[in-house]
């Protein structure tokens, strides 16, 4: 099956996710800088989530660029990923409105964990349909960065109940780890 529809659908869903997230930023009822202070937690959670959605979009684009076709399993894995990504606006708003308290931060981490797992499933489904010796399989490799991310999320979820800021720092650290684009796929595709 051609990958074009999957890419177009995914791009549309991700664009809607980003649009929904920005709608959580309410206009302040004042004209000075102090009117913006109550919005700071909401804005910070928005920025982090925007970066995460951007990271997923960027890596999704690169992975599908390396794919030649998609299977039925890849379609379902992609829907699984998009489901979890679509929950990011909800948890982003909850974290921001409640100023980074334990339960919202833990649920935020759970959504990130499941998004990471969804991406992993999509990658495995694409590799399975292309074969273990394909350029895509070589580009994805052992995906140490992806597995490390999922482990970090799994650590951050209970940490949110112990120290919410520790969980937040872990989420920022994982985003920072991915902020620099992963060149594995580009390098394999250039060869």
The number of distinct β-strands equals 0
Mean of residue pLDDT?
Answer: 92
- Helical region count? 9
Measured by DSSP, the beta-strand proportion falls in under 5%
**Basic shape:** globular
Uncertain parts: none
Distance between the termini: 25 Å
Q: What is the share of helical residues?
A: over 70%
Class from helix and strand fractions:
mainly alpha
- What is the radius of gyration? 18 Å
Q: What count of domains describes the coordinates? A: 1
Major sheet characteristics: none
What string, H for helix and E for strand, traces the elements in order?
A: HHHHHHHHH
Description:
The protein is mainly alpha-helical and about 190 residues long. The chain has one domain. α4 runs antiparallel to α5 and α5 packs antiparallel against α7. The model has no long low-confidence stretch (mean pLDDT about 90). Belongs to the TMEM175 family. GO terms for molecular function: potassium channel activity; proton channel activity. It comes from Undibacterium terreum. It catalyses: K(+)(in) = K(+)(out).
Keywords:
globular; 191 residues; 0% strand; mainly alpha
What order do the helices and strands come in, and which of them pair?
Layout: H1 4-22, H2 40-66, H3 72-86, H4 88-97, H5 102-130, H6 135-140, H7 144-162, H8 164-179, H9 184-190
Helix pairs in contact: 1-2, 1-3, 1-4, 2-4, 2-8, 3-5, 4-5, 5-7, 5-8, 7-8
